[in-house]
Amino acid sequence: MKTIVKLTLLIFFMEVGTAWTQTLYGTSSGEISFYSDTPLETIEALNQKSGAIINSDTREVAVQMRITDFIFPNKLMQEHFNENYMESEKYPTATFKGKIKEQVDFTIPGTYSVTADGVLTIHGVTKPVTVKGNIASTEKGLKLEFKFQVRPEEFQIEVPSLVITKITEEIDVSGRMLLVKR
Amino acid sequence: MSKNFNNPIGLVILLFVLTLSRISPTKAQDDLLQMLEAEQSKDPIYTIATFKATRLINGQTVETISRNHLNFWISHRFGAVNSGFIANFFGLDEAKIRLGLEYGLTDNWLVGAGRSSLEKTYDLYTKYKFLKQSNSIPVTVTGLAGWAINTMETCYGMESGAEMRFNENLERYSYWGQALIARKFNERLSLQLMPTFLHFNKVEDPSISNDLWALGFGGRYKLTKRFTLSGEYYHAFSDPISYESSTGKVYPYQDAISIGVDIETGGHVFQLHFTNSRGMIEKHFIGQTVGSWADGDIYYGFNISRTFSFDKAAKHKDK
């Protein structure tokens, strides 16, 4: 009986211990932009209010943004983006959740090239994705940069045939954010 | 405490729960997303695109255009569809035209100007969005103020048949103010109410009041993402009885009723419609519509709007 008590206590304190050392880095002002360039039209938009959290122990990552926070130089384009393509009243956010594959110790300063496996949810459709990026561990926090491509059709975002030549099949999405220690 | 630890079943449960919590990483991931959800900005989410354009058919909508954006409007109202095939090709042989420009000073404030071929009238107006529908505010409220000058030669014959004599240039002016109150009920349906006041410095007959109140009602229903039905009705609180008793003639002006469709293609909005009014500014279609749906005085017309962005500030910010 004594051993069980000891074992339980040990596991219990291990749990508490890990809970205490769980280090979270986060931001609510991450920049995410996307870009599509065809001879007919350049489409770009920037969201500077994206939220992101990295748990440096479990190396889990979560990113969330409001679709309506994407700012376009052309406001009419922004309206069409929200109204016709993203249906942002129905699907207000896009999210990514995943885990960094590399065993990186973020407490050691340096720049690490990382790969995150996870799921991306856009327009209410969830797809598995692998995102490549860099994480620089600095005094200020973790500087995260990433780039990947999205095919609108995979997320059931309809592009009418009339404008299909104005939008690339694969849209470049890139992100840059500084996550500070919580 | 020690008594509890002596209970092996309790210990096993405790062990089980603790182990379970360690081996469910997906739960932890959801927690991260939940944390983000909780941290997400509480800024109101404003309703966008209550209407496709700044005009519903003849009248305005609550919409303004964004800062440094320019709208170019080309509007035509052809002749009456009942004017005959040989004589007038169902009205398409002739048209009243209005060309207009509007510019967004801020995201909520625009200024506009236009020139109508009907009564050779120039108009200036400004529109300001006071209240925006959001997840906490139920309606959008926009105010409109407009002015027009009629540059016809004096003693011209009006559409109503009356002769208009101007003794001085001030008499050529008319003014209007309008409150536009709209709600986007869902992604398809938006409705709008437009209480309006008009003032004419000069009217053709003393029994017609220089001041005119009107109430408009309109709306749109999106059939598909780019194809929308729209309708608009303005009731003018005029006084036909005093006109008829003092002149012995039938009061010439009707309420403006219009129905149409909006077709949106990227930077353009095409509005095609049928209306009993040939005027495209408030003074004309609210105050001086002579056509009657009942008599078949229906005019086919269109508005085309093209938006240009002069906002370079947001461009290349991220490069």
From TrEMBL, chain A:
Taxonomy, superkingdom: Bacteria
Domain Lipid/polyisoprenoid-binding YceI-like: 19-180
Protein name in UniProt: Lipid/polyisoprenoid-binding YceI-like domain-containing protein
Organism from which the protein derives: Algoriphagus confluentis
From TrEMBL, chain B:
Superkingdom as given in the UniProt entry: Bacteria
SUPFAM superfamilies: OMPA-like
All residue ranges annotated as the DUF5777 domain in the record: 51-308
Name of the protein this chain belongs to: DUF5777 family beta-barrel protein
